[in-house]
Every structure is written in structure tokens, then in C-alpha cells.
Design goal:
17 strands, Nucleotidyltransferase, domain 5, five-stranded mixed β-sheet
């Protein structure tokens, strides 16, 4: 990492390094003076001006536990927080911890790191007061987790009072084992099924890979960040991304609102135009209906082209007795008969006189309101 100080906490003492340059690591006792003052002196002595610090906690100080929880656990964080005192040897009020989870069949594999916090909190406070930005607080092993073996299984050996053997799948820690004596390279390769086995201090002549090669790569810093919330710096990138998302959403909504307003304006305009022409449309529809009826009437008259209607009406006017009145004259399409409907005072006289018009038959008579109503049919020659 460029322009970043690295501090490894070993308890009452720390070591300070600056990986971006070939500068000797400095070991400092935390009891002598403020760690923040030591950082200032370290930077002045080496002519560097970093503004950020990342902390690592020695694996010697860390408690580690791996366990499983049912896959149906709805809130893993709450479940772990609830039983943290039973999972670790520390008091919940005096420790900081972090964990990762990975689904394995019907369970979650949980890897938990915890450490007592008073000394750690003191170092963090001193560095923050000195004006440095703290990037994170990680287990020492996370400094070796890089993109190099992000898809492979690999093992890291860290020597100490009890040697730590950490097993990784890519960038994720699967387990950490404490051992009095570290197995040989061949034994570890057989147990874990990989030859990617790194050692922080590889014995001379062994087949272990030097872990220093991993420190030359950019660390991932994805898991086990135990930095308390009060020391975390705002994630500017997230804010920028969130702001861009909000701006894009506002822009999309604005465009949608503009299109909606334009669409509503066009709809109102079209509705006004429709409202203006609808009376004319209704008038045209009525005229077309009248035209249709007129054409039907003309067609009906055309079907009776062999009948001299004017002459028929003249004859009827002449022959009808004075007491007889014609109310309807009906002609059916496809028929030669003409139906005559009306009323009379003398049905016999009417029937006789109608024979001079044509072959006339009396179809029916009814008596209503002191009148005799008739229905006749005649064939006009």
C-alpha cells in the first residue's frame, strides 16, 4: 500500500513499518510515550509524510474459534452477539471481535476473532489524536491475504509460543489451529491437499514458501476488520456512488416527469380537438343514418316499380265510400299484394266498391269505439 503506515500490536509494544519504501521497521514500547508521538518522529526521521495507518493485531493476542450455526438462522449477527460471552474467554464489555460466515451444506461455518480491547483502544486513540486516519484493525494474518491465491487453497504458518497454522480457501479463512510443533511441509501438504504453504519464518532448506512474497502484494482487507465504529472514517467512495445513484434516479424521475407532463399536455390537446369535432361527427353520423334510411326507402320503392302508386291512390280516393277512411297502405317487398287498413260504417259497400280497384279480399274486421276496422288485401293489375 502506498503512503500508509503499518503498525502491528504485540501487547505492550508495537512495531512500525512503511512498506512503500525500504525503511527499517521500528519497535516501540507503548509504555514509554504516546504512539502518536512515535509515529511523528518515525516519519520525520525517514522523510515520509503518510496520512493513513492500518493496524494489525498479533495472532499471539487473538482468540480464535470456528463453529457452526444452522443454515436456518435468520439473523446471524444477533445470534452471535447474544452468545459472545459463552463463545470467548473475555467479558463482552472489554473485548472487540469480528467474524465471517460461509454456507456449508445445512450449516453456516463461522470463524470468530476476539481480543481484549483496553490496550488496543489506547493505541487507536493516540494515533487518532495525532491526526492520522485509521484504515482498519485486522488480525496479523490478514496482511498476507492478497489477490495472489484468491481461488486456491493455501496454508499460512505463523511461529510463536504456540505456532498458528491458518487454512484458507482463496481469500476466506476456514480454520486456525494452534500447535506445539509445526508439522513438516510434507505432512501439511498431505493433510490439507495443497503445496501452497507459506511460512512467516521458513526454516532453512525447507520447502515452505516465504510469506514475505505475499506481503509484496496488495492486501485484500475484506474480512475481520475489528476497528471500533468511532474510529472508522467515512467511506467516501460509497458516498460518491450513493450520490451518483441518487442523481441518476432524480434524472430518470425528472425525465419521466417531463415526458408525463408532455404526454398529458398532448392528451389534453387531443381531447380538446376531439371535443370540438364531436358535434360534427354526431351530425355526420345522423346524416349517414338518414341517408341509409332514405336509400332503404328508395330501394323499397324500386322493388314496386310495376305499381302505379299515383293511379292507385286516385282510384282509392274515388272508390272509397264517404263513411270509409283509409289509415294505412302497406306494401311488402317481394309480394304483389297491397294491404289496406282503416275503418268504415258499411263494410259491405266498401268490399263491393274495392273490387273496381283490383282483386280485393277482406282479411279481417274488428269493432272498436263504435267503428268497424278492416284489413283488406288487393292485387293491383
Amino acid at each position: 500500500m502506498k503512503n500508509v503506515l503499518e503498525i502491528v500490536i504485540h501487547g505492550d509494544w508495537v512495531n512500525i513499518s512503511y512498506p512503500a519504501a525500504d525503511i527499517e521497521t521500528e519497535f516501540v514500547s507503548g509504555k514509554e510515550s504516546s504512539l502518536g508521538d512515535h509515529l511523528v518522529l518515525f516519519c520525520q526521521k525517514n522523510g515520509i509524510n503518510p496520512t493513513s495507518v492500518v493496524f494489525f493485531i498479533s495472532e499471539e493476542l487473538l482468540f480464535f474459534k470456528s463453529f457452526k450455526l444452522p443454515i436456518k438462522t435468520t439473523d446471524l449477527k444477533t445470534a452471535i452477539n447474544f452468545q459472545i460471552s459463552q463463545l470467548t474467554p473475555f467479558d463482552a464489555d472489554t473485548m472487540i471481535y469480528s467474524f465471517t460466515t460461509k454456507a456449508e451444506g445445512n450449516d453456516y461455518l463461522v470463524c470468530l476473532y476476539a481480543v481484549q480491547s483496553p490496550v488496543i483502544q489506547g493505541y487507536l486513540q493516540q494515533v487518532a489524536v495525532a491526526g492520522y486516519s485509521i484504515m482498519g484493525l485486522f488480525p496479523e494474518s490478514q496482511r498476507f491475504v492478497t489477490v495472489k491465491d484468491k481461488k486456491n487453497k493455501w496454508v499460512l504458518v505463523i511461529p510463536g509460543r504456540l505456532s498458528k497454522v491458518l487454512i484458507f480457501s482463496g481469500n476466506r479463512l476456514d480454520d486456525r489451529k494452534l500447535m506445539n510443533m509445526v508439522p513438516s511441509f510434507a505432512e501439511l501438504a498431505e493433510i490439507h491437499g495443497t503445496k501452497n504453504i507459506y511460512h512467516v519464518e521458513p526454516p532453512r532448506g525447507s520447502s515452505f514458501l516465504a510469506a514475505a512474497k505475499l506481503k509484496a502484494q496488495k492486501p485484500v482487507f475484506k474480512d475481520f476488520n475489528m476497528l471500533p465504529a468511532e474510529f472508522r472514517r467515512p467511506d467516501v467512495l460509497k458516498f460518491i456512488i450513493a450520490a451518483l445513484v441518487i442523481v441518476n434516479i432524480i434524472g430518470i424521475l425528472g425525465m419521466a416527469a417531463f415526458k408525463e407532463i408532455h404526454l398529458q399536455s398532448e392528451i389534453r390537446k387531443q381531447e380538446d380537438e376531439i371535443a370540438q369535432i364531436m358535434p360534427k361527427v354526431r351530425e355526420v353520423t345522423g346524416l349517414r343514418e338518414e341517408e341509409k334510411n332514405l336509400l332503404a326507402s328508395l330501394e323499397g320503392f324500386e322493388n314496386f316499380e310495376n305499381i302505379d302508386l299515383i293511379n292507385l291512390l286516385v282510384q282509392l280516393t274515388k272508390e272509397l265510400p264517404p263513411e270509409s277512411y283509409l289509415e294505412q297502405l302497406r306494401m311488402e317487398r317481394g309480394q304483389t299484394e297491397i294491404r289496406l287498413l282503416g275503418y268504415t260504417e258499411n263494410i259491405g259497400d266498401l268490399t263491393t266498391k274495392m273490387q273496381s280497384v283490383g282483386d280485393t279480399k277482406l282479411k279481417s274486421t274488428t269493432r272498436r269505439r263504435n267503428r268497424t276496422y278492416f284489413h283488406m288485401e288487393t292485387n293491383v293489375p
